[in-house]
Design a protein that fits this description.
Elements (H helix, E strand, L loop, with lengths): L1 H23 L6 H18 L13 H37 L15 H25 L1 H11 L14 H17 L8 H15 L16 H7 L19 H6 L25 H5 L34
Helix pairs in contact: 1-3, 2-7, 4-5, 4-6
Bound molecules: zinc ion (2 copies).
């Protein structure tokens, strides 16, 4: 027990130190300042080349989403996630130790060329995220949490990071074992992390970007607008689940872009009853799941392939 208390103390102390250092000492490998720089860049593009013409440079919920950006990128880790995850990892390792398992690494890719490591990590992580995102739409309970992200009514870069803190726990937990099996965590790859952040910002930005033929590989604002559309194709739980890559949606038949959708209403049916204030969303814990008729999650379209959650390495 003492071991775990020490882990919790070290986690808080270590993360607070890390965050303070990030804020006080800008450098080329600094998440805090890169997030600010990227955000300012995409915001400038939105102001100079707006896709949807709206008066003013501030859209609805701009400041709330700006807070969400820092909350989900840094503050939630400081408040809870870092300590919880360190304890969970230690407990998980102790549990494995009961069965004599001391090393999870099944495929040592550390000796591969750098680009191959990048690509493997990127593809594995993005595919897991695509599956988690799909699960967030299919499970009535998880959909209640995911509604926070879908409560966005006007797109803008910062909407990227408006999501319930439970999603951080779900995404990171789902990725932990498969990534541990190939010998490293996401934190090892700063450039990759910044690349996915930039694509995420652009997906939600008020800019008309298509990437030409690369749209079949990379997610983009037009495709992601349809993910946020209030009206879904009949019988579907959702479309365009891609995070950074659009590839999985094309491969598994969930891509849907009937037209550019610039003025498509965003949100979900019944959103007028969903909390709109930041504090209410942060402390929103669904106690009951709604009936399928008011979750916009009617029976699945036959054309969609059956979903298999990524339970473990054998699925990858
Ligand atoms: Zn979604
Ligand atoms: Zn989104």
């Amino acid at each position: 027990m003492e071991k775990y208390l020490k882990i919790i103390y070290d986690a808080y102390y270590g993360y607070a130190q890390y965050l303070l250092n990030e804020m006080l000492y800008p450098s080329w490998k600094n998440y805090f300042w890169w997030l600010i720089g990227l955000s300012l860049l995409v915001w400038t593009l939105e102001i100079l080349f707006p896709w949807r013409k709206r008066g003013g440079i501030l859209r609805k919920d701009f400041w709330m989403d700006t807070f969400y950006m820092f909350f989900n990128y840094f503050l939630f880790s400081l408040i809870a996630y870092n300590a919880i995850s360190m304890v969970a990892v230690e407990a998980f390792n102790d549990f494995l130790g009961l069965f004599g398992v001391t090393n999870l690494v099944a495929l040592e890719i550390g000796s591969w060329p750098q680009w191959a490591q990048f690509l493997t990590l990127f593809l594995v992580a993005d595919f897991i995220q695509w599956n988690v995102h799909r699960l967030l739409h299919r499970s009535p309970l998880l959909w209640e949490f995911h509604k926070v992200h879908h409560s966005v009514e006007e797109m803008g870069f910062a909407a990227h990071l408006r999501f319930h803190w439970m999603e951080t726990i779900l995404y990171k937990t789902a990725q932990y074992v498969p990534l541990a099996m190939i010998g490293f965590g996401l934190e090892d790859f700063f450039i990759l992390h910044m690349f996915t952040t930039a694509i995420g910002h652009l997906n939600h930005a008020n800019i008309r970007l298509t990437y030409g033929p690369f749209k079949y590989i990379l997610n983009n604002p037009i495709m992601h607008t349809w993910h946020h559309a209030k009206t879904l194709p009949e019988g579907s739980h959702g479309v365009n689940y891609g995070i950074t890559l659009s590839l999985w949606d094309y491969l598994f038949g969930t891509a849907y872009i009937p037209h550019e959708g610039r003025d498509e209403p965003l949100g979900f049916p019944g959103m007028e009853h969903f909390p709109t204030k930041l504090w209410d969303q942060l402390r929103y814990i669904p106690t009951r799941t709604k009936t399928p008729s008011d979750t916009s999650a009617p029976p699945r379209k036959a054309a969609l392939t059956p979903f298999t959650p990524a339970k473990g390495p054998e699925k990858l």
